Amino acid sequence: MKTTVVLSASLVTIAFSVADLTSLAGGQTSVAQTRRERFTPKRPAAPEGPARFFYIEGITTPVQALEKSSHEARAGFDNLSNGLAPQGPDFEKINEDNVNPLASFNDARFVFEDVETYADGLGPVYNAQSCRECHQNIVTGGASQVAEHRTGHTEGEMFFESMGGSLIQSRATAPDIVEHVVDTDETRTFRMSTNTLGNGYIECISDSTITAIRDAQPEEMRGLAPEVPVLEGDGSARVGRFGWKSQHGSLVSFAADAYVNEMGVTSPLFPDENTSSGTFVGYGSGYDPLPEPDDDGTDVEAFALFMRSTKVPPRGPITDDVRLGQKQFGAIGCAVCHVSPIVTAAAGTPINGGAFIVPDALGNKIVRPFSDFLLHDIGTGDGIPIQATPEFAETANKMRTAPLWGLRTRNRLMHDGLSFTKYDAIERHDGQAATVRDAFNALDDTQKAQVYAFLDSL
Ligand code: HEC
Ligand code: HEC
């Protein structure tokens, strides 16, 4: 927005990075270390109350245990608030001059859709001008076909990010600073833009619920619950759940990360501009007109408020085939990882290292994301860890179980978007999902068609 201004920076979402350790030369090392320190949690995850209800067919007690006081999360592709933020003034009448970023759903949506320019702090290196460019399908906040690339190289077990970070920015405000992948960075992947609708509910799932899901999974299919920093919290880590690697646990942290790494807009949580393949292009370099931070943190809070106030992706029509397909999906073991339903923490529970209290609108709600938010090795790992540090090395070849809600709105599947059909996506499941894939292949054609009907209803 006009009120924000400024600079830009380096990787994306996740990425906190060590990328900088490898990319910044000499004199910049201390900056890099400061960043690295910032992204190292000072203490382990703090308690977030007891584990809540979740269901895995054949493993947990069925739905009678679903607490009577829990209510379904609100669903809809309708640009309406889930009840957290008030709906606010007529969206069409909001403009740069009268927007009140944290006042309502419509105001926060305006900020999420706002197109940044050079004068606002876009770039110098960036991927797109607005959150909506990559998160809009069916409505603002959804997933999209936009893919980014992430690269680096691997020596032995250790991953090294590309100069300038594993996220390659594909646009810049000047032609000579566009980032290019070098021949030697042979660890390469695409990452598709994921859905953010309903993620406020996901943020309100307690760590204890996610680790209870992990502990309920049979050992050979058990997921990994990475603990990641919450930048706005008291220093406690949190179980990650957002992004293809579950690299963030909080929507404020993710939003600040995305703002600098996708759009080049710095904010208090991410005050350093990205480099262009290791070359400083921030304020003072001649490429960046604005001193950091470009945003005082208001935009970042507005992005988080918007996402927290969105409804979950709604289901399509539920036919008999859909019901039968869901039964097959559970019976053959897809639901061990693609978990549903899950109940969010009670209202009033402090989460995010004390920085957020679960609100009434999001607490004690039943969500059906069809994900455990854990990392698994199903043979599709892209070789790029959450951070290029030894403690995250085991995440290099694991991916988060893709939440299947909203699946019918996506036609490029898996993290790299290289699976064109549901069948292709299922056949790529190997490793921890190999036996389940084999069980799918053993179904007869009618049963397979039912599974597809179920997937098409999500
Ligand atoms: C250039 C495209 C692009 C832009 C612009 C962009 N994103 Fe994203 N977003 C992505 C991609 C790609 C991912 C998955 C990244 C990954 O996990 O490696 C993602 C993931 C996310 C997620 C995690 C959702 C989940 O559960 O997986 C959140 C939250 C998010 N973005 C918020 C934002 C916000 C807020 C903005 C604006 C400041 C923004 N994004 C701008 C491409 C984009
Ligand atoms: C061991 C855990 C596990 C099991 C079991 C499992 N999946 Fe997955 N699934 C994943 C992971 C992890 C991904 C993301 C992989 C990637 O992007 O590289 C995924 C991705 C998908 C996707 C792509 C979604 C998208 O938005 O791109 C579909 C569809 C899918 N799974 C369906 C199934 C079906 C159907 C079954 C049962 C036959 C199944 N899965 C069993 C872990 C699992």
Characterization of this structure:
The protein has 458 residues and is α+β, with helices and mostly antiparallel strands. It contains twelve helices and 15 strands. Strands 3, 4, 5 and 7 form a four-stranded antiparallel β-sheet that branches. A three-stranded mixed β-sheet has the order 1-13-10, with no helix packed on it. The radius of gyration is 21 Å and the shape is globular. The two termini are 34 Å apart. Residues 2-33 have low confidence and may be disordered. It binds heme C (HEC) (2 copies).
Can you give the mean pLDDT? 91
Proportion of β residues? 5-15%
Count of distinct strands: 15
Ions, cofactors, ligands: which are bound?
heme C
What layout of secondary structure does this protein have?
Elements: H1 19-23, H2 29-38, E1 71-72, H3 105-113, E2 125-126, H4 131-134, E3 147-155, E4 158-161, E5 167-168, E6 171-172, E7 187-192, H5 199-203, H6 207-216, E8 227-229, E9 237-239, H7 251-263, H8 298-308, H9 320-331, E10 342-343, E11 350-351, E12 356-357, E13 365-367, E14 375-376, E15 399-400, H10 422-427, H11 434-441, H12 445-455
Parallel strand pairs: 1-13
Antiparallel strand pairs: 2-6, 3-4, 3-5, 3-7, 8-9, 10-13, 11-12, 14-15
Helix pairs in contact: 3-8, 7-8, 9-12
The chain binds heme C (2 copies).
Give the key terms.
458 residues, binds heme C, globular, 15 strands, 4-stranded antiparallel sheet, alpha+beta, 12 helices
